[in-house]
Structures are given as C-alpha cells and as structure tokens.
Design goal:
It is a single chain. By secondary structure, the chain is α/β, with parallel strands linked by helices. The protein has one domain: 3-Layer(aba) Sandwich (Rossmann fold). The chain is built from 5 helices and 5 strands. A 5-stranded parallel β-sheet has the order 2-1-3-4-5, with helices on both faces. Helix 1 links the parallel strand 1 and strand 2. Helix 2 packs parallel to helix 3. The radius of gyration is 13 Å and the shape is globular.
C-alpha cells in the first residue's frame, strides 16, 4: 500500500462494514475520508465539504441512479474530482464508462484498491463527461 497520501476521498458503499473498513484503511494511509452510504449522501458531501475532493470511490451497486447520472452530478459539483468504480467481477461496464473511469473488480484486496486509487490520482484523476482529462493536486507529507 502507498505509504502516505494527503488527498480527500469520498467513499460510496452501501455495506456499512465494508465502508467502515475502507474508511479505516484510507485514513491510515493519510487520506481525508468522507463516507457515504447512498448516492444522495455523496452528493450532499460534495455540496457541503469545504476544500477539495480529489476522488470518489463508488460501488456501482450502491447507486440507485445510472452510473453516468451520479458521476455527472458529482463532477458538476466537483469538476476536478476523479472516479474509481467498484464492481462485481461479472459487471459489464458500458464502453464509455470503462474508457473514462478506473474500475476495480470485486472481490478485491485492500492493497489492489489503494493502489488503483493512488494510480488514478497520480494519472490525473479522471475525465469529464466530454472526455477532457482532469488533474489532481498531490501534496507531499
């Protein structure tokens, strides 16, 4: 796992035990973590959080909206925010989703998830709905 990070993440996961575990792991790596159990919570956090939000880690199954709709809403609020999706290994991502955002197949290890988050942040996060690359500010500890 990466040794230390300083970005802010929103974790969207409907299973409280998985959300809690991911939150503990990412906090131990130095990330500021905002936890959401539903898409509405993630939207509310993006609206109310003071300061940057660098990335959202979203469970595809936690979204009761279409994936694109949720990402579109979040990126309207936070245009520089990257996206990492968590999806069942049998999930067939629409090509435009798979081309634009990082996907991590379940089940995953915490190492593989934290590495994908770091890789996505270091690569500039994600892209806007029209395909423009986004960049994230990475600070050293």
């Amino acid at each position: 796992m990466p040794a230390y990070c300083s970005e802010t993440l929103v974790l969207l996961e409907n299973d409280p035990s998985v959300l809690s575990l991911m939150g503990r792991v990412f906090r131990s790596l130095g990330y500021q973590v905002l936890e959401a159990r539903a898409p509405e919570d993630a939207i509310r956090l993006c609206q109310s959080h003071v300061g940057p939000i660098d990335l959202v880690v979203a469970d595809v199954e936690s979204s009761h909206q279409s994936d694109q709709s949720l990402v579109s809403q979040l990126q309207q609020l936070r245009p520089r925010m990257g996206v990492v999706y968590l999806a069942a290994s049998n999930y067939l991502a629409p090509p435009d989703l798979a081309d634009r955002y990082a996907l991590v197949a379940k089940p995953f290890t915490l190492d593989s998830l934290s590495n994908k988050v770091r890789e996505t942040l270091d690569a500039g996060g994600s892209k806007t709905a029209d395909g423009r690359s986004l960049t994230c500010n990475v600070e050293s500890p």
